[in-house]
Amino acid sequence: MFYHNINPVFFHLGSIQIRYYGLVYFLGFVFFYFYLRHYVKKGKIKNLNYDSLDTFMIWFIIGGILGARIFEFLFYLPSTLLTNPLEFFMIWHGGMSIHGGIAGGMLAAYLFTKKHKINFYKLADLAAIPLLFFLAIGRLANFVNGELWGTISNNTTTCIDYTKSQFINNAPDGCRHPYQIYASLKNFVVAISLIFIKQYSKLKDGLLFWWAMLLYNALRFLVDFVREEPNFLGITMGQSLCLIFSIISLYFIITLSKKK
Question: What is the pTM of this model?
Fold first, then answer.
């Protein structure tokens, strides 16, 4: 049993709290930017240069944040959107749907690539693996934050007890599955698997990206059975979105595989 009592604040800058979670997001975007710069330098993506990459990152970040907030309020907090719509803009209060972030980031990237005559799938394939590593580390940051709790576990050796934490308000009772750790490991496994697939298979443009989407969502659907979240007939909203994204991913995998 692990007693969770981790301070989510990494350090203070005067009165400003620098949290691990925010730091992960910041460093993740910085790494992603320089990762893409490396491929721009090698000329791997036609029509993408340093200047257009800077613009792309702005589009991608804004699209991801907007998508994450829209999905969060539409699917998870619709009553809050009706009673306090200004809460939508208060992103420092938290509340980001990963599915919304993916959808918003994809849409922004697609519109950007169409405008600048860039191959969307070449860019998406390059982005797939680092973004999965980013999601894996992000789940570890969720664990540090003491959020996204698992369901009650009968295995007292590996479960997490939040009740003694001085940093978590309304901590859940009982000993819980370390859902955040499961989800993080799942994302690491998918990312590493895709590295091998990329290395040893000649995939058509777009297939690596859609395989990343399919594996991420299909495996998350399974892992989320031990996530504490309201459900309908045993299926959570997150799992419902995973099913939809998995079906869409499978459709594009089949369609792209048939293209000559």
Answer: 0.92
